[in-house]
Amino acid sequence: MNTNYKHVKKSCSLLLQWGALLAIAGALLSPAGAQQAKLIKAKDGSGVVGYKDTPILPWAGYHKHDPDRPLPKEVVPGKPSAQEKVGSAPSDAIVLFDGTDTSQWQPNKWKIEDGELEATEGDIYTTQSFGDCQLHVEWQAPDPPRGPQMNRGNSGVYFMSRYEVQISDSYTEKVYPDGSAAAIYGETPPLVNATLPPGKWQTYDIIFTAPVFEDDKLVKKATVTMFHNGLLVHHNTEIHGPCAWRKIEPYTAHPARQPLRLQAHGNPVRFRNIWLRPLNPQPDKPDR
Ligand code: MG
């Protein structure tokens, strides 16, 4: 055994002794609960570890740090669009328009040109019905601008066929704020005007929660949280009733799921890359 090896061995031995002393001191100084904390594995064999000797979270029904709480589902994010290059939907989305067909819509008569869907005549509705959801829509107002005031790039996204988030060319035309782009039409203007010039692709990313009715009585209003071109324009904004022009319409009870609707207002607004993620898509339960 050479001198260096002896020196290393002695150093290691000293370190181990100090380590053991520190461990004992740590155990003596730690709270009693920490000494008993024992990681255990999830029942499903996934290898997830956590604790079962912790309080139950009243809002969740699981232990704090519970290994048996379902893991979030893995989703592959889509690619964001650029002005000249259309992006893609995340892996768990329902693709409502990918540039090739309008089979998710009825009546199926808007024009497809260059992979874009152009509003022509008559509103269109999704063949599927939705409640709570995350919606991504890209749209473009006509370039050069056409039409005065409310006829300049007017379209709209109607959740449950009733509750409109406005589409409008609010870059070149000034109209009443609760009728501008990204307004909850007739109710609430956006927090900021994030509208791009006509001919530029614009994005809406919207989280919609459906109203809740008990029999015919409204017990919870619909809400919208929304980004327009990446800027927050609504933060849990309540919707006070169905879309209406120059009057206030009260809520009337309707099923928990209804089709999404895109508005034809006589203006050739274009769309691309439309996708939707139902937020609780259990077939036998309402979306919440
Ligand atoms: Mg509109």
Q: Which structural class is indicated by helix and strand composition? A: mainly beta
Name of the CATH superfamily of the largest domain: Exo-inulinase, domain 1
Mean pLDDT value: 88
* SSE run: HHEEEEEEEEEEEEEEEEE
Counted up, domains total 3
Number of helices: 2
Characteristics:
single chain; 288 residues; Jelly Rolls; disordered N terminus; 11% helix; globular; mainly beta; 29% strand; 3 domains; eight-stranded antiparallel sheet; binds magnesium ion; five-stranded antiparallel sheet
Describe this structure in words.
The protein is mainly beta. It has 3 domains: 2-36; 41-71, no CATH class; 94-278, Exo-inulinase, domain 1 (Jelly Rolls), CATH 2.60.120. Helix content is 11%, strand content 29%. It contains 2 helices and 17 strands. The protein has helices at residues 3-29, 32-36, and strands at residues 40-41, 49-50, 94-97, 105-106, 111-113, 116-118, 124-130, 133-140, 155-159, 163-167, 202-209, 212-214, 217-220, 223-228, 231-238, 258-262, 270-278. The strands form 4 sheets. Strands 3, 5, 6, 8, 11, 14, 15 and 17 form an 8-stranded antiparallel beta sheet that branches. The protein has a 5-stranded antiparallel beta sheet with strand order 4-7-16-9-10, with no helix packed on it. The chain is globular, with a radius of gyration of 28 Å. The model is unreliable at 1-9, 11-16 and 18-29 (pLDDT under 50). The structure holds magnesium ion. The site of magnesium ion (MG) has 8 residues, from strand 9 and strand 10. Magnesium ion binds at residues 154-156, 164, 166-167, 263, 265.
